[in-house]
Amino acid sequence: MKFTDLGSHKRLTELAKNPPDLTRASFLTPERIDKMAVEALSWKMLYATEAVDSEVEKALVRLSREANVLEKMAFLQEMQVMNYVNNCESEERRVGHTAIRALEVSPYASKELTAAVDAAKSEMVKLEAFLPKVDKFKAMVVVGIGGSYLGTKAVLEALKAYQQNGRKLYFASNVDPDKIQSILQEVELATTLIVIVSKSGGTLEIAAQEEVLRRSYAKEKLDVKNHFVMITTQKSPMDTPSAYLETFYLWDYIGGRYSVSSMVGAVPISFMLGLSIWKEFLRGLHEMDLHARYETDPKKNLPLWGALLGVWNHNFLKRGTFAIIPYAQGMYAWTEHLQQLFMESNGKSVSQKDGSFIDWQTAPVLWGTVGTEGQHSYYQAIHQGTQVVPVEFVGFLESQFGLDDEIEGTTNQEKLLANLFAQSLALAKGQKDVNHNRYFSGSRPNHILLANRLDAYTLGNLLAYYEHYVAFQGFLWNINSFDQEGVQLGKRLANDFLELIKELHHDKPSKEPVKDRMLVHAFLQNLKNYTTKKS
Amino acid sequence: MKFTDLGSHKRLTELAKNPPDLTRASFLTPERIDKMAVEALSWKMLYATEAVDSEVEKALVRLSREANVLEKMAFLQEMQVMNYVNNCESEERRVGHTAIRALEVSPYASKELTAAVDAAKSEMVKLEAFLPKVDKFKAMVVVGIGGSYLGTKAVLEALKAYQQNGRKLYFASNVDPDKIQSILQEVELATTLIVIVSKSGGTLEIAAQEEVLRRSYAKEKLDVKNHFVMITTQKSPMDTPSAYLETFYLWDYIGGRYSVSSMVGAVPISFMLGLSIWKEFLRGLHEMDLHARYETDPKKNLPLWGALLGVWNHNFLKRGTFAIIPYAQGMYAWTEHLQQLFMESNGKSVSQKDGSFIDWQTAPVLWGTVGTEGQHSYYQAIHQGTQVVPVEFVGFLESQFGLDDEIEGTTNQEKLLANLFAQSLALAKGQKDVNHNRYFSGSRPNHILLANRLDAYTLGNLLAYYEHYVAFQGFLWNINSFDQEGVQLGKRLANDFLELIKELHHDKPSKEPVKDRMLVHAFLQNLKNYTTKKS
Questions:
Q1: In terms of CA atoms, which chain A residue is nearest residue B447?
Q2: What CATH number corresponds to the domain at position B115?
């Protein structure tokens, strides 16, 4: 049945006509704050400040049941084919990011799951042997794009406080020539490892970056084979182990945006933070996987409950964006990773069930920054602007460094938490004022995620929370969260532009006839004009 | 007259019912691409890929006239009081960021403008004398929040390629204790300058950070007076010149989000990049100021035309967000600065003219990242998602380093531009496909901003473009873009939480009775529970 035909959808549509008003007298009470909480592993969600009441909650629970989302989560984790769109040619793949962080396989597991767990274990064995061999290296450059680095960066920056070896890591993450040059200015090639990440082994930008680096090594008469590490799938064009110090594998069932759990994350993170932190992180992921799959009460299943609150705000209260705002400096890189996770997974318009175009909203625009920075920036708009923005605040009770002076009677970590709680309450309650310029309408929905400390385990929990939040929303919306056909058209057109640039600027005939040649040419004219003007 | 009562508003509402479809046969032609361009100073805007035709353009021009936006821009630049809301107690201030980058004053200038230009010049004289005195320093820590650092960071990172002195700069930009500790681990205090930025001289977080740093200097027996520089307003509580190596001034007519043009930007940027780059940047700003004020044809006035296209997409085509996507690695920090500029300025709900609540949309949610990163991330959603996102692409014809290998027949900079053009065209044209999963609806509005090279002058132009884009939209929407009352409620509530934390966790009675004490307490219970659980 279509999302919009479900009984729960009709009920929620009805309820959304007159949603709970958080500013109503005696609505937001201490009892409500106590009661509206979900605890799961190292995390606790406080959602009294969401615009829900028991009727809305009941309908959301019903929605999760009618859409069979827990059954689909089990299919996913059992590695059934979940990356497909019926009636459309599509990738038709299994999805295995939960499998590769499973530590053991049940005897009842599917053949595919068992094989995936075993394959992941054997890469782990290679990694354990590899790390001592590269002990002398002081820096690493990871050449990877999008999913090949956003997750790794997010995790590394968040856990940097625990680094002890003083190594440096750089991401050569895009084709911009200024980026790679700025890295080359900083590193000493002789003590640097280069890690090339290319799942398909055929991405143009990666090959171009690798080539620039190979030339730099050649100039210094250093042997690439002692410095370059490859991460790719078996039998890809880049699976040429003899050309590399080591080749690690990933698999077609690991999407780029889910690849931080694979060697894509494992190699740089264990190089920087050590293997035991990496294993703690994996344990955090895996335990949240089990929670997402086996906690059958939607109101106790943290990622499912988060997903349902999100659907309420997005599809029924019609809020087009969602801000995730961590009150932790180390998490500054999460926005970009989560943008990919949420919007590449669920920025879709086609029904998985029958390939028809759907007529309900899917992924909201996901945005945000570290909280204390946002407070002095766009918070004006989320408090008094004309657009209501649902917010997820993320906070920690203790600081990472444990060094925290008491100033004016409270620690800085307490100041951080005071601000987080205050913003949540301010958005919900608002403030009436005869001065309209100081009037806060309130009833702006938000919730808080709290953990004790930002460490490898809580972070593993959190990443898997987001991955399953996204998966559950994809199930609810009946879309395929695991492909990304929407990036193909731009790629194809970029090739057309490049062919014509070759022809116009380098006097080389283009290999293939360029589609829309005249349009492409019209854009490129600007390039030519400027070049001419300059000279 | 109200925005929604203007004749042009009615006309645009009418036109929006059946907006131009960019995918229509023979609509997007080479002629259209040539014709729909605006050139101003170092920038060119290509907007053939916006959903406008000559009727829409005519109505937008009429809108700008009916809302008297050029007259208001002149008032602003003449330093009339533009920060006010009628019938509400409000800041009632002049707005002077354009004044402080004016290089000379016309004899017809207002008294206030003349005074502001003179005051800015005398700070510049101080800066020229100051720089040689601090030549021996190797690093700088800027302690500032929000507007006191976001603009500086955006500019510095974008121009880092031109740095020659190897100095390091750190921003201690929030109260998070992990942030300042991570800086203290990296810098050598003896060769470091500390720059404290506090316009009011009374921000709690800044005082707390300064205190942490003072203690660190005391521990190493270094004299703060040889290391600490203050930037504040005259007669603020922090205007105690004898306690600092130097004190620079700013003024109440410089809002935080516009302060990068003042000593707030000048001190760190000239320390890092040299005075001549700083002056080039100022020249770029000033020339765009003059363009914004004196170019009376809305279709040739770059920031005004950008603002009008934005209003068309936001208020009439009902697109709730706006993505700014630069194809230049150095501009990665612009999203955060622009979020503050756009959303703190225009995230408002009150009519400037009469203090009534308005019933039209103001600031959209502003988001984005560097383009090549976005392409491998959220582009799926902007191409095939259910939410249409207007995009501004920003690109440069040459790289900054000028080091750019030719690989497979084109340079990396050409690859970058090919991608930029391709995305613009792909969003506009779309692609029909019987496979729904490979279908791109197209007609997704966007435009391109092009300049020759990312340097101090083009960047000055660009920043002023955005500042005036925002000012023009504020004028169109009839709101006060220059205050930020929306951040006050959160601040007040944060103090309530801190008072109660002192009482509950540090056994100190709270100074004042805490409003909503029971609610605040209910949130803090979670803090207590966790603390107890842990021990």
A1: A523
A2: 3.40.50.10490
Q: A111, A376, A436, A533: which one is catalytic? A: A376
Task: For chain A, say whether B363 makes contact (Cβ under 8 Å).
Answer: yes
Backbone angles phi, psi at A176, to 5 degrees: -60, 120
Q: Which of B278, B300, B318 is the last residue of a domain?
A: B278
User: Which chain A residues are closer than 8 Å to B317 by Cβ?
Assistant: none
Residue in A closest to B485 by C-alpha: A438
Is the same domain home to A392 and A410? yes
For residue B441, tell me if it sits in a domain: no
Pairing of strands B139-143, B192-197: parallel
Whether B338 is in a domain gets the answer no
* CB–CB contacts below 8 A, A to B: 506
What is residue A363's DSSP assignment? P
Counted domains in chain A: 3
Domain that holds residue A126: 99-275
pTM: 0.96
Instruction: Write the DSSP assignment of A62-103 as a string of letters.
Output: HHHHHTTHHHHHHHHHTT-EEE--TTS----EE--TTGGG-S
Q: Of B321, B362, B525, which is closest to A385 when you measure between CB atoms?
A: B362
CA angle A85, A88, A90 (to 5 degrees): 60
Same domain, A454 and A493: no
| Three-state secondary structure call for residue B192 | strand
| End residue of a domain, out of B254, B278, B302 | B278
- Decide if A438 and B367 are in contact by the 8 Å CB cutoff: no
Cβ–Cβ gap A422/B493 under 8 Å: yes
Same domain for A44 and A191, yes or no, is: no
User: Which candidate in A133, A300, A318, A491 is catalytic?
Assistant: A491
B344 among known catalytic residues: yes
Is the same domain home to A129 and A30?
no
pLDDT in single tens digits along all 535 residues of chain B: 899 999 999 999 999 999 999 999 899 999 999 999 999 999 999 999 999 999 999 999 999 999 999 999 999 999 999 999 999 999 999 999 999 999 788 888 999 999 999 999 999 999 999 999 999 999 999 999 888 899 999 999 999 999 999 999 999 987 666 778 889 989 999 999 999 999 988 877 788 889 999 999 999 999 999 999 999 999 999 999 999 999 999 999 999 999 999 999 999 999 999 999 999 999 999 999 999 999 999 999 999 999 999 999 999 999 999 999 999 989 999 999 999 999 999 999 999 999 999 999 999 999 999 998 899 899 999 999 999 999 999 999 998 877 667 777 888 889 899 999 999 999 999 999 999 999 999 999 999 999 999 999 999 999 999 999 999 999 999 999 999 999 999 999 999 999 999 988 888 877 777 778 899 999 998 887 655 554 4
The pairs formed by A132-139 with CB atoms below 8 angstroms and a separation of 24 or more are A134/A193, A134/A245, A134/A271, A136/A191, A137/A167, A137/A191, A137/A192, A137/A193, A137/A271, A138/A166, A138/A167, A138/A168, A138/A188, A138/A191, A138/A192, A139/A167, A139/A168, A139/A169, A139/A170, A139/A187, A139/A188, A139/A191, A139/A192, A139/A193
Residue B167 maps to a domain: yes
Decide if B121 contacts B99 (C-beta within 8 A): no
Q: Which residue of A has its CA nearest to B379?
A: A487
In this complex, do A366 and B378 lie within 8 Å of one another by their Cβ atoms? yes
Assess B198–A contact: CB distance below 8 Å, yes or no.
no
Using a CB–CB cutoff of 8 Å, tell me whether B372 touches chain A: yes
Q: Are strands A406-407 and A410-411 parallel, antiparallel or unpaired?
A: antiparallel
Residues A258 and A137 in one domain: yes
**Structural domain contains residue B177:** yes
Q: Say yes or no: A358 and A506 in one domain.
A: no
Instruction: Kindly state whether residues A53 and A136 are assigned to the same domain.
Output: no
- Shared domain check, A17 and A146: no
CB interface of B with A, residues 48-87, below 8 Å: 85
